[in-house]
Each structure stands twice: as C-alpha cells, then as structure tokens.
What we know:
Blueprint: E1 2-7, H1 14-19, E2 27-31, E3 34-43, E4 48-56, H2 58-63, H3 88-102, E5 117-127, H4 131-139, E6 145-152, E7 162-174, H5 176-190, H6 201-209, H7 220-227, H8 232-243, H9 251-264, H10 269-283, E8 288-292, H11 298-304, E9 311-316, H12 319-328, H13 336-339, E10 342-346, E11 361-365, H14 376-387, E12 391-397, H15 424-438, E13 441-447, E14 458-464
Parallel strand pairs: 8-9, 8-11, 9-10, 11-12
Antiparallel strand pairs: 1-4, 1-5, 2-3, 3-4, 5-7, 6-7, 12-14, 13-14
The structure holds S-adenosyl-L-homocysteine (SAH).
S-adenosyl-L-homocysteine (SAH) binds at residues 246, 249, 253, 257, 293-295, 298-299, 316-318, 321, 348-350, 365-367, 370-371.
Family: Belongs to the methyltransferase superfamily. HEN1 family.
Cofactor: Mg(2+)
Protein name: Small RNA 2'-O-methyltransferase
Amino acid sequence: MLLTITNERTPATDLGYLLHKSPERLHSFSLAYGKAHIFYPEATPERCTVALLLEIDPIGLVRNRRGPSGDNHSLEHYVNDRPYVASSFLSVALARVLGTAMAGKSKHRAGLVDEPLPLTAKLAVIFSRGGEEAIRKLFAPLGYEVKAERHPLDENFPEWGQGPYYALELRKEVTVRELLNHLYVLIPVLDPDKHYWVGDDEVDKLLRKGEGWLKTHPERDYIVRRYLKRRGRLTRMALARLVDETPDPDAELEKKTQQEEEIEKPLKLHEQRLNAVAEKLKEAGAQRVVDLGCGEGKLLRALLKEKQFKEIFGMDVSYRSLEIAADRLKLETMPPTQKKRIQLVQGSLMYRDKRIAGFDGATVVEVIEHLDEPRLAAFERVLFDFAKPSTVVITTPNSEYNVKFETLPAGQMRHKDHRFEWTRAQFQDWATALAARYGYTVSFFPIGDEDQVVGAPSQMGVFQR
Length: 465
Ligand code: SAH
C-alpha cells in the first residue's frame, strides 16, 4: 500500500518539518497489522516527495481476526487485496505516524501549518466499485484536480478487461493538514471492506477529522454512512451532530461566554457556583463524577484538588473547549497518578451515551439554558433515565436577578446563546416534575448573595436517587 505526497513550493523539503519526519532517513513503525515506513524518494529544494509504505501482514490479520470475514480456513484469508489496496488500514497508519501533522502542529515551521502548498498526492491502488465517477464525487468538491487511472485486471491478459482498481492522483494548493484529514476520512469511504475499528469513538474521530469541510460537502451523508460502514445508529448520531441546529458551540460561544463572565464578574459568581457544586458532590459522598458540558474545565480543576474524587470525567460537545480544558489542566505533563483520575471526551447531552452511565455524581453547570427548550426532554432521558447517576447537580441562572446587573440592558439574557433563563419558580417546577418522573428527590439552593425580592443570581437543584 503506497501513498506519496509531493510538495513543489521551494524550499520543498519544509514538508519534512510539517510531517515531523526528516527527509534524511527512513522511519519505520510497527503496527498491530504490519509495518509502516516513511521515506523520501526525492528531496530537493524544488521538489520533495514523501512516501508512506504500508506492509500489511495477511497472516497477522487472520490471527487478529481483522481480515475479510468468512470461513477461517478459506484461501481468501491469505490471498486478498488487503496488502495492496488503500483502505482503513492506511487511515489508521496515517493517524499513528503522522498524527501531529494531522492536528496541524509543527515545532520548527509553525507558520507554515496554515499555508496552502502546491501538493500532489498519489495512491498506487484504490478500489472503486462506482468507478471514476465515485472517486471524483468525493474529491472534486474539495477542490482537487482528480486523475484516476484504471488498472487492468491482469496485464498479461488484456482480454480480461478492466478491474475495479485505480491509481489515483490528487492535486491542489492545500495545507498538509487538510490533505491528510481528507485522505483519512475518504479512503475508508471507498473501501467496501469492513474495518475492525468502527466503534462509538469513531464518530468523534470522523467529526474531528472532518472539521471545517465535511459539514458542507455535497456528499456528506454518503461519506458518513460509508465511513461508519453503514452502522445505522452511528451514522444517525454523526449526522445529527453534524447538522445539529444548535449553533456551532465553539468560536461564537467563547466570545459570548466572555460577555457573560463580564456581567457576572463583580460577584465572583462563577467561583461561588463551582464551590457550591463541588461541596454538594462531597456531601453526597460521590467518588466517580462526570461533569457534563464541562466547557473549559473550571469545575474539573476544582474537583481534581479534592482527593475524594477518584475518577473525574469531563464531557462537552465542543472539541475546542475540550482542547482548552486539556491545556489549562496541563493534561500532557500531569503526573501519571493524577492523569489516571481524569478523562475528557467529546459527546452530546442529546444522545444516550454509555460512557456516562453508572457514575455516583453528575454535574450540569450552566448548560441547560444552552439547550433548546423542546429538546430538554431528550436531555432528561439521557441523564435521568439512561445514565442514572446517584446524585445530579444542575445550576442555571435565576432570571429574576437580571434587573440587578448594571451592565445588562433590561429584558436581555446574560449570554447571547442562552435559549431561556428561568425564574426560581420555573426552574423548580421543571425540576420537581422531572425528579418525580425518574424516581429522584430534589432540593434547591441559591447561589450568590440573595436579594429579598429577586433572590440569588444563580440557582442549583440537587437530585438524589
Ligand atoms: N460547565 C462549564 C461550561 C458552561 S458553558 C462551566 O460552568 O464553566 C456551556 C457548555 O455547554 C459549553 O461548553 C457548551 O459547549 C456545552 N454544551 C452545549 N450544548 C451541549 C450539548 N448538547 N452537549 C454537551 N455539551 C453542550
């Protein structure tokens, strides 16, 4: 299996910096199903080509039950196209050996990461049942000049005609990161074979690698379905997340959250809120806790300081927030004993997710008001019916208090992305009915200094099962 990428912008050997692989030597890696080698057949200032050669071990595939399905003794296990055809194995290898480049990081050429370069990618053999048309449909909308040359079934017997295999060449001024992410997603789309790694986290990977292009690709639904190998549930989950009508919770949200913080800052409200939530979890004796909609990880940081919490799980729908959280928590350099306690995952509160089931405590801090009211029902089922933690702590603004914020114009909500802000009565009505429905009891607490008339700035419900 061979992939080459050529850069024709002088100094072309900068490609080596972008890929974190020096053109001067051979780089070899052992993978579960064979070996990957990276080398540079040419490396001049004008033209530099990197090759990723994947040696698949068909016997190893059988041993690991990762080869084609069917009878274990059949010849197909030993003689098949897996070693030659670009497939999901190539994507796995790309992520393994060029993962840093795919994430858009470069130590020595950071400025070059976002610069489109005149790149040509060649795949020696890909499979396409839908012919050249199917290949073109995937790559052309992304702006690639596509050349697909069909391989004859057997060069020695031209009368046998053409096979379903093609040599593919793609050209475009594109960043290395984008090219790698496009290949990562689209190669398995063309490969009809089952690959062994389709699991729930595959949806996260697909969305991450597809960030910035998959959502608007005209063949989006087809790509998602084929990438996830027609697993209906996963496909629906991925598409729902891609077309989620809640606005992109990333870039915009950061800005709006800052505005909200400005409004509430004089009260140090968020600090009080996080302390109150942590206190309730401690009182409940929770040891394994999940923070849903953890954002940039402020509560996670507070929880880490408390030894009582043995396992801390943070989930958010926004990948960018999670990256910021990982940075702020210094996850990468955390001592292993600490690091074992914490895990961050991308996920949505709108979908059942077994990763969040079975915790002692769950927190949902300043999140529900970001969900569309009609969709709260889905959230309720996901958390109270499916994940069922023993204790749930939910906080949300008290809208009655808004009149007291000097910088907040009358009638406006604190955060432009809030779908609603509730009075105390509204929150308590919702929470009481919800608790009764799912067999919980609930008590309410004010957060921040209480005003006689309008109450405290924020409110908290503690649910217990
Ligand atoms: N709990 C954090 C962040 C609150 S901001 C704190 O108190 O500091 C609201 C967070 O909810 C954002 O990080 C947003 O990405 C997340 N969010 C919004 N909709 C979500 C959904 N459907 N599933 C999971 N997280 C969601």
